[in-house]
Amino acid sequence: MGSGCQCEMEYANEVEGLCAECIGHYWLFQGLSRTELGALVDRAVREFCSDGEYLFHQGDPVDSMFLIKAGRVRLDKVFQDGSEILLDIRKAGDFVGEQLFSEDRAEFPVSAVCTEKTLTCGFSREVFEQLIRDYPNIGLQVIKNMSRRIDSMSSRVESMSAIKLEDRLYNILFHLAREHGHQDSQGQVIGFPLTHEDLSFLVGAHRVSVTRAMKSLRDAGLIEQQKQQIVLP
Predict the structure, then answer these.
(1) Three-state SS at 53
(2) What is residue 61's DSSP assignment?
(3) pTM above 0.70?
(4) What is the mean predicted confidence (pLDDT) over 160-179?
(5) Where do the domains of the chain lie, and which CATH numbers do they carry?
(6) How far is CA 45 from CA 27, 65, 121, 124, 146, in A?
(7) Which of 42, 66, 198, 200 to pair with 85, CA 20 to 30 A apart?
């Protein structure tokens, strides 16, 4: 499970902090009984990763899935020509390795790398399949919850249909702020670094065009950039 995760002693107390209430907050497992959640807790494997460490690499066998209990993970994909793009960012409350639910997926199509100290709870394919055999309702609820998630992702894709790059870019920043940011007196804050190259992959535009679009959004007062933060007033 995982690739070279190093234990962070300052998170040691959090290992004992995983309980049915905690794991029940994950959207993937909403609607499960306390008994079913307890079974998940008993069989979850806790791991700690430092900034820059990988949960898995593109091309690794799909044998595990990971719930993110604390921290943040980015999903990157490398193409045959060596180019690399950012596909998504996952935060606490999300999970990675959903390819585990696909029987015909033998290898991870992306890499998952931690962008800060991260605590995960993982399940191997064998363990999760046995859980479903022991508790069939877990499988049923996972299917229902994933269907709801797909509907939510469809709404995000619709935000990409805006013709103007500035509108597409603002929509992406809005979703990132809502999903990964925090609120303060200035507005919604995206508190982790995002390069213009990262944003260019997310909106499907050239980096130079993104730089111009970011300037337009700043000039219009729709965003503010402060060091490595982006603020949506």
Answers:
(1) coil
(2) B
(3) no
(4) 79
(5) 9-155 (2.60.120.10), 162-232 (1.10.10.10)
(6) 19, 10, 5, 9, 22
(7) 66
